[in-house]
Amino acid sequence: MIGRLSGTLAAVQPPQLLVDVQGVGYEVLAPMTTIFELPPLGQAVQLHTHLAVSETAQQLYGFIREGDRQLFRTLIKVNGVGPKMALAILSGLDGHALARCVAEDNIGALVKVPGVGRKTAERLVIELRDKLAPQVGDANDIPLMAASAPKVDCAGEAESALAALGYKPTEATKMVARACKEQPDADSATLIRLALKSMAPA
């Protein structure tokens, strides 16, 4: 089992990262809450990891904070929630926001996450109620990922990242379009953040 990676951040293509550990490149999937806090490319990074093994693949999931990994592991224990859905949940809702949704029975916010239907949202609320304590904090206080050169199609990158998280292409396009109107000159990380913020509970 691989529980932690310490190396150099070699590439970021949300939701996938490449971490170089002494010449070996590890492909890691990470929620946007982690990606927003990554150092610039070429800098040292340490991730708490979870190795998910299925009949068809072995995939590493990485998190900046140990608490996020524990939350991920709690989510995948919920019936009907797999690693991909857990990744999408933690991309749209950080620990504070998810705890509030559960405490307030906010089914509407949970069903906005791609792949989460009403029954799954209700199951999440029931099964997580005794496991997540409401936390005080601003879920929007998320440091932005450092922009990297050269300048690219930020809107296209943002749409691709949202699609990879499970949002329908048309929905991703609309979310990014709204974000572009709010901040026309924003980089891809900012556009993703704004798009996900628009789907998060108030």
Automatic annotation (TrEMBL):
Keywords: ATP-binding, Cytoplasm, DNA damage, DNA recombination, DNA repair, DNA-binding, Helicase, Hydrolase, Nucleotide-binding
GO molecular function, one term: four-way junction helicase activity
Region annotated Domain III, chain positions: 147-202
Gene3D superfamilies in the cross-refs: 5' to 3' exonuclease, C-terminal subdomain, DNA helicase RuvA subunit, C-terminal domain, Nucleic acid-binding proteins
SMART domains xref list: HhH1
Annotated GO biological process: DNA recombination; DNA repair
Superkingdom, natural source: Bacteria
Domain Helix-hairpin-helix DNA-binding motif class as annotated: residue spans: 73-92, 108-127
Subcellular location: Cytoplasm
Stretches for region Domain I: 1-64
Predominant place of localization: cytoplasm
Any one annotated GO CC term: Holliday junction resolvase complex
Family the entry assigns: Belongs to the RuvA family.
Main function: The RuvA-RuvB-RuvC complex processes Holliday junction (HJ) DNA during genetic recombination and DNA repair, while the RuvA-RuvB complex plays an important role in the rescue of blocked DNA replication forks via replication fork reversal (RFR). RuvA specifically binds to HJ cruciform DNA, conferring on it an open structure. The RuvB hexamer acts as an ATP-dependent pump, pulling dsDNA into and through the RuvAB complex. HJ branch migration allows RuvC to scan DNA until it finds its consensus sequence, where it cleaves and resolves the cruciform DNA.
HAMAP family: DNA_HJ_migration_RuvA
Subunit structure: Homotetramer. Forms an RuvA(8)-RuvB(12)-Holliday junction (HJ) complex. HJ DNA is sandwiched between 2 RuvA tetramers; dsDNA enters through RuvA and exits via RuvB. An RuvB hexamer assembles on each DNA strand where it exits the tetramer. Each RuvB hexamer is contacted by two RuvA subunits (via domain III) on 2 adjacent RuvB subunits; this complex drives branch migration. In the full resolvosome a probable DNA-RuvA(4)-RuvB(12)-RuvC(2) complex forms which resolves the HJ.
Matches recorded under NCBIfam families: ruvA
Domain description: Has three domains with a flexible linker between the domains II and III and assumes an 'L' shape. Domain III is highly mobile and contacts RuvB.
Record's protein name: Holliday junction branch migration complex subunit RuvA
Gene assigned in the entry: ruvA
